[in-house]
């Protein structure tokens, strides 16, 4: 299944794609794509629906994040062997973990906003793992029982904030609009092997990232098990599993986002995102 959320910001409704990739409304079936809906029982219930009987949603509607009420986004740094080489860093012996603030979440085609004082805003196409069942101290062999599915993540990063301002990476990862998610959550039954998916990212039509999840150092079952040793994973939590080479920081000389750039990224079987880059418009408080 391909689950999603559509509508204006803050008023998104749950939806699902039918066999012809038409958007159908799920509002009369579930309240939102979150919580128990993401568990094994919830997904089994949805799988029995006659999707073609659900109301069709008009084309052109805005897509929001496919998961509501995300509790936390746990990111994995330097998890691709070819990206580690590009960055001139050693392959880590254990996963490098950091957080993105959930306030950075936007829809897959929403604008990326350049933060005030930014100068090195970068892109990273990543496989997002969506947790469906609560996970605490789970074994690697049982880890996949806790995964609802997958989505595309653009782990937008401000490298100066991340690497030159002291402290932890989270400062360069959590600005508003820095976590476009979607376009949809693809349930795990549709992805035979999450470790063999092609990944691309283009800036203004130029291909920068052209990789595959096959070069991940730590795979999905290991990551779910490993992270669950340090924190409880709840339904709707997202593990952003790292990026292949081709980020702006790795170019010679480095290339970073600027106003009016168009970012397009895609992961095989998981869909495509497109973002326009705009300047910050001032304090909205």
Task: Detail the topology: elements first, then pairings.
Layout: E1 2-6, E2 13-17, E3 23-25, H1 40-47, E4 73-77, H2 81-87, E5 96-100, E6 105-106, E7 112-114, E8 121-122, E9 125-131, E10 147-154, E11 157-158, H3 159-163, E12 179-180, E13 185-187, E14 198-203, E15 206-212, H4 220-227, E16 238-240, E17 262-267, E18 271-279
Parallel strand pairs: 4-16, 6-12, 7-18
Antiparallel strand pairs: 1-2, 1-13, 2-3, 4-5, 8-11, 9-10, 9-16, 10-13, 14-15, 14-17, 17-18
Task: Explain what the structure shows.
The protein has a single domain, classed as Alpha-Beta Complex (Fumarylacetoacetate hydrolase, domain 2). Helix content is 10%, strand content 29%. Strand 17 and strand 18 form a beta hairpin. The protein is globular, with a radius of gyration of 18 Å.
């Amino acid at each position: 299944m391909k689950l999603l959320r559509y509508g204006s910001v803050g008023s998104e409704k749950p939806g699902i794609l039918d066999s012809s990739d038409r958007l159908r409304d799920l509002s009369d079936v579930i309240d939102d794509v979150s919580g128990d809906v993401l568990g094994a029982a919830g997904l089994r219930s949805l799988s029995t629906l006659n999707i073609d009987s659900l109301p069709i949603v008009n084309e052109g509607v805005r897509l929001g994040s496919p998961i509501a009420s995300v509790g936390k986004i746990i990111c994995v740094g330097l998890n691709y062997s070819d990206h580690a080489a590009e960055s001139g860093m050693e392959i880590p012996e254990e996963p490098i973990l950091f957080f993105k603030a959930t306030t950075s979440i936007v829809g897959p085609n929403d604008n990326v906003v350049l933060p005030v004082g930014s100068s090195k805003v970068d892109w990273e196409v990543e496989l997002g793992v969506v947790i469906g069942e609560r996970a605490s101290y789970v074994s690697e062999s049982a880890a996949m029982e806790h995964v609802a599915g997958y989505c595309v993540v653009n782990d937008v990063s401000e490298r100066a904030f991340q690497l030159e301002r002291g402290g932890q990476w989270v400062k360069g990862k959590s600005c508003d609009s820095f976590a476009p998610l979607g376009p949809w959550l693809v349930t795990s039954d549709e992805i035979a092997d999450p470790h063999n998916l092609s990944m691309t990212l283009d800036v203004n039509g130029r291909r920068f990232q052209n990789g595959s999840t096959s070069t991940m150092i730590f795979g999905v079952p290991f990551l779910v098990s490993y992270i669950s040793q340090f924190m409880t994973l709840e339904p709707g939590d997202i593990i952003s599993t790292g990026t292949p080479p081709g980020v702006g920081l790795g170019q010679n000389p480095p290339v970073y986002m600027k106003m009016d750039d168009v970012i397009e990224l895609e992961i095989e079987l998981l869909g495509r995102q497109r973002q326009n880059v705009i300047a910050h418009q001032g304090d909205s408080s």
